[in-house]
Amino acid sequence: MKNILFKKENQTGIAALPVIMVLGMLTLAIAVGVTSVAFSELMISQGSSQSTRALSYAEAGARDALWKISHNKNYSCVSTDCYTIDFVTNGCSAGTGCAKVSVSSAAGDTANPKVITSKGVVGVNSRTIQVNLVLDSGTNDGTLQYGLITSTTWSELTGVAPTQTTPTFNPSSGAITFGSTVAISSNGADSIYYTTDGSDPTVSSTLYTTPVTISSAVTLKAIAIKSGYTNSAIGSAGYTQATSIPTVTTPTQASVAQTTVTLGANVTSLGIPASISARGVCYGTSPAPTTNCTPASGTTTGVFTQSITGLTAGTLYYYRGYATNATGTGYSADDSFTTTASNVAPTVTSPTSTSVADTTVTLGANVTSLGVPASISARGVCYGTSATPRGNCTPEGGTTTGVFTQSITSLTAGTVYYYAGYATNTTGTTYTSDGTFTTTSSGVVPTVTTPTATFYCASTYTLGANVTSLGTPASISARGTCFGTSPAPTTNCAAEGGTSTGVFTHNRTPFSTSTTYYYRGYATNATGTAYSSDGTFTYGSRPGTTCP
After folding, report:
1. Could you read off the pLDDT of 395-407 as tens digits, one per residue?
2. Are residues 12 and 108 both part of a single domain?
3. What is the pLDDT of residues 326-364, one digit of tens each?
4. 185, 85: one domain
5. Statement to judge: residues 235 and 264 lie in one domain
6. Is 394 helix (H, G, I), strand (E, B) or coil?
């Protein structure tokens, strides 16, 4: 074996020590922390003088990193050529001799050893050594973390160029909105080349300079190039069109009737693909309806309306707009409406009567609902002397809901009347329940008519009259006739005996010969006495007549 001795100048740490390279298999023992560890180096060929010096510098760089790790097992310096060691003045910048070192951040266990990469450089010659090492758990003295390097594996990487990182794509493969862009990257690459036709890229393919615009389904493939590195593996990402359902908003309703309504909505986006096959409204008696979906005309964005028929009167309906493209169906939020009720007659309640007099009264009622349709042509009161009156129906004049009153005249004193309020719309007329009142009796004398006189016998005449009304109060205490030789006689008054209405007669006497008499019927109640008109006769002697 041939020994090679070199000396590192102006450097501290392990690398400041003279380094002896033993070609072939060499076992060394070094102190690391408070413990010594044995490790082996692979046999490394010497090559040319500059190449051999480069290998020595690479080994010195690796040992410098080992020294750092022995004092702090968590030490790392991960970027490529993370730190440099000049073995002669301006060794790296002048290319006359240096080491470029990096240390991984791995934990240093068996599954994930810590890796030291050290490249020695002399002129155009370079040699790279890689050391994989395994650490124990170590101890911590409060300042540095010491650890035992339990094993190392040395190898030379010279002649095996590192491989450039495979390109990555952002966004990664998948659905994408056509027209958006994809960025391609590879850490530290000098250049990236890509294809969009599925072929493998080469340095003759399209040079990547700006993000790639995706306008159709495509597979991007890319390689990354870096000086001194093997070209990267081919990165690949496939893109398809992102899809979405249409967007529908703002459900509307108008012209709500018993069985019809006008519904609508607003298609604000056609989705992807940007073409809809139908738009319209769904409705039903439950929220989020998916039945009764009726297409409206049009397949564009914008507001639309449509007429809906065949609904049920007086029913709560939910509805929402919809639009359908190849991806699916989009719906608006729910809204609701209630169809108007079936035709209903007005509702009238609370019949009232006030200011009852002999022949007048104030009647009224309360229209609480106009019914359906909600318009009345008349409201008022019907009255009569029998229950459930439907005659004498007098409009009050109003056509709204609410309490109303009206004056009724030409009634009969002392009479029981029935009455009911009413209201009429095109559906029909509704009446309240019956109310009753009795007109007052302010004192009316009886009515007596048709006085009569018939000769009876000797000096006796049969006188009479007709009581047609008992007056007010409707009870008489007497009826009869009066006679005398002067008009409107109030003397010679005799009661006939009856106390009812009707024709009556009774015999009256005496009368004088050749005398003209005036007579009349009368009737008396609590109010007073009433008389018929006068009648007259002249009594003449009738010899030979006798009374039975």
Report:
1. 999 999 999 999 9
2. yes
3. 999 999 999 999 998 888 899 999 999 999 998 899 999
4. no
5. no
6. strand
